[in-house]
Amino acid sequence: MINREGTKKILKITGVALVVLVVAGYALFASNNFISGPEIIISEPATGSVISTSTVVIKGTALRIQEITLNGRPIFVDEGGNFSETVLLAKGYNVSLLSAKDKFNRTTEYKLELVYKDK
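Below the sequence we write its predicted structure tokens.
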């Protein structure tokens, strides 16, 4: 004979465990922005590149940010987080600093090092 009380108890425990797992999974998903923090990804040029022109276009993506600056000057990103900024290079070694801050005041920096060699 089947023990109905034992089966009900197992189903009740399984249901509660499933609800707890779903809530915990959603909480982890929703807190991803808080856990990950801001991120800067430079698509071009690569750090350490040798450039033969006096200007260079820095392109990249900024994720989970509230504001971003290039050498202390605010730059603008589109809805996807993409940005494109032209920078004037001095002869020789150049450093451009990208700084991003998220809504929780956490910051990240990306140092882009380029060398401008005149032809």
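The chain has two helices and eight strands.
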